[in-house]
Structures are given as C-alpha cells and as structure tokens.
C-alpha cells in the first residue's frame, strides 16, 4: 500500500530569504544579490579592514598599541568638529566655518591663559564660549534670515580667519604657562583627555540621535523640512541648535589643539573643515540631509586618520595623500548615490 503525497505534505524549500540592504526586496540568503547588498552596506568597514591589513603587512610599526594611541590622539580634535558637522549635514546644511572657529577659539584661549596663569578652567570656558558665539551667528543667519548655509558659513569662515590674527596682533601667542599644556596632555585611565572626550562624545551623541526626540527632529528636518513643520517641529530652532552645537565643539577642539603645541597660532585649523566634511561623507551621510549616523562618521574619521598615519609611516609624499583622500571621498559619494538609486 502506497501513500500519496499531498501538496501540503511537500518538503518546504530550505533556502531562506532576507531583506536586501540596498533595495529592501526579499533575496535568497548567500545569493549574489544578498552579497552585493552586504558589500555595499558595509563597504567602508571592508575598505577599513583592507587598509589596516595592507599597512600591517608593509610595516611592523603600524600594528602596534603605541601606533593605535597615536591614531586616536590625532583623530580626537577632528572627531569633535566632525560630530558637529554630522548634525549640520543631517539637516541638509554645511558648516565651512569650523576651521576658522578653531583658530579664533585657540587664540582667545591662549590670550586668556597668558593673562590668567593657572586658570585652566577659564581658558577652556572662554574658548568654548567663543566657538558657541560663532555657531550662534551661523545658526541665526541660516535659520532666521534664511541665508544659504554655504554662504553664511563661508562668510564667518573669512571673518573668523581675520579675527584670529586680530586677537594675536598678526602673530602667534607664545610664552604660555605650562598649565595650558595640561589641557590636552593630561592622562586619565591611561588615555589623554581629548581621546576620552572623543569616545564619550561619540557614544553620547549616538544615543541622543538614536533614542531621543531631538535626534528624530534633526533627521525629520533634513529629510523634508516642510513635512517636519507640518508635523509640528520647529525647524528654525533645530537648525539654530545644530550650528550652535557645531561651533561649541569647534571651540573645544581649538583649545585642545592649541594646548597640544602650547601656543596660539592664528592659522590653526586651516583646512580642517574639509577633513570634517570628508569624514561625514565617507561615513555614509548624505549631503542632501536626512541620512547618516554618528557611528558612520566615527568610522570615516578613523579611516582618514588611519590612512594619514599609514602613509606617513610608508613615507608617502603629502600631495599623494591628498590624491588618495580625494579619490576616497568621490568613491564614497558614488557608492551612496548608487545605493540610493537602487533603493528608489
């Protein structure tokens, strides 16, 4: 006696399906479409691992704990301005003034330290307030006067650069007390203060952007400002806050950088705004706003600093380093545009 198999008794298909990271459509696990989606979604992580593997192979100095600390110390000041830049870019704007804010804040902090020896807290406070003031000017121009972010921050970039020289009378501020150097060179739990601030800032801001209503408002304004306003979000206040926050972090970065060299150079921070924007873009944020993460920015920042460090160890000329970073930025944007079209 034989038993007939009914359709319901058929052996189920063992091939599992998952959602494609790029198209959002169901695809078979371990299929070509699935692999392509994973490669696109984690492209920067893959590139980062390849870069680390290459430099580790070429130089024994690279893959050492001391060199890791060197990379983190170099990344810390950039991390502060990159975090602020992330919030600005998430709203669809851009802040070109952070390089000048670093210079103005560093000069103001150095002048304060020279006039008030031993008052380290006052030096840091003045630098942060100066950065916050410039950020508020940017925020007011963008959110209240409706000046395009590129024009508003380009203006403060130029004005801030001149103001830095005005504070120092056209020259660096030297002869600072030794306490000024303790701001960036003091170690806590074996790590320098800027590195600790970077770690705390990344974790705290990632939680804020992921878990709080403020973070959702920033994403909403960047995604569609008109729709956000209809939903009851005060877009002007959100825009003002992100530029003010960017200026505040740039001011803190300025005093950290000045403390590292125990001096107040008026050209400090020149070109740093481009590295900050590069870190955000390489980390996967869209320049159109509404898409990006703090963790992505952290990855982009470490990518740039790892490249700089590895290329310096291999004695690659600085101009070739600029070429490599430029290609990396274009590639990151190209991947972002391509993946956006696939999702659409």
From TrEMBL:
GO terms for cellular component: plasma membrane. It is found in: Cell membrane. It comes from the Bacteria. Residues 1-22 are annotated as: Disordered. One of its GO terms (molecular function) is hydrolase activity. Coiled coil: none annotated. Keywords: Cell membrane, Hydrolase, Membrane, Sugar transport, Transmembrane, Transmembrane helix, Transport. This is Sugar transport system permease protein. It comes from Mycolicibacterium smegmatis (strain ATCC 700084 / mc(2)155).
């Amino acid at each position: 006696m034989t038993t007939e198999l009914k359709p319901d008794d058929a052996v189920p298909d063992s091939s599992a399906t998952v959602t494609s990271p790029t198209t959002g459509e169901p695809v078979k696990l371990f299929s070509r479409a699935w692999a392509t989606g994973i490669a696109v979604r984690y492209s920067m992580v893959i590139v980062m691992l390849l870069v680390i593997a290459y430099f580790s192979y070429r130089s024994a100095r690279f893959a050492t704990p001391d060199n890791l600390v060197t990379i983190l110390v170099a990344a810390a000041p950039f991390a502060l301005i990159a975090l602020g830049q992330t919030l600005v870019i998430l709203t669809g704007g851009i802040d070109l003034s952070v390089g000048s804010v670093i210079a103005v804040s560093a000069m103001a902090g150095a002048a304060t330290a020279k006039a008030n020896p031993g008052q380290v807290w006052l030096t840091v406070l003045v630098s942060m307030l100066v950065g916050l003031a410039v950020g508020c000017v940017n925020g007011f121009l963008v959110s209240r006067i409706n000046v395009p972010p590129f024009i508003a921050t380009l203006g403060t970039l130029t004005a801030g650069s001149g103001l830095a020289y005005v504070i120092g009378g056209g020259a660096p501020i030297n002869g600072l007390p030794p306490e000024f150097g303790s701001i960036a060179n003091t170690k806590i739990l074996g790590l320098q203060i800027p590195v600790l601030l970077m770690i705390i800032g990344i974790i705290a801001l990632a939680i804020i952007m992921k878990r709080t209503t403020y973070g959702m408002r920033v994403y909403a304004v960047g995604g569609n400002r008109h729709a956000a306003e209809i939903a009851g979000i005060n877009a002007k206040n959100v825009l003002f806050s992100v530029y003010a926050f960017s200026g505040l972090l740039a001011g803190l970065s300025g005093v950290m950088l000045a403390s590292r060299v125990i001096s107040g150079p008026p050209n400090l921070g020149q070109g740093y705004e481009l590295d900050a924007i590069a870190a955000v873009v390489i980390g996967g944020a869209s320049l159109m706003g509404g898409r990006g993460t703090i963790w992505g920015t952290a990855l982009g920042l470490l990518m740039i600093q790892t490249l700089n460090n590895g290329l310096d160890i291999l004695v690659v000329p600085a101009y070739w380093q600029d070429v490599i970073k430029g290609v990396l930025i274009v590639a990151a944007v190209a991947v972002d545009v391509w993946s956006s079209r696939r999702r659409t």
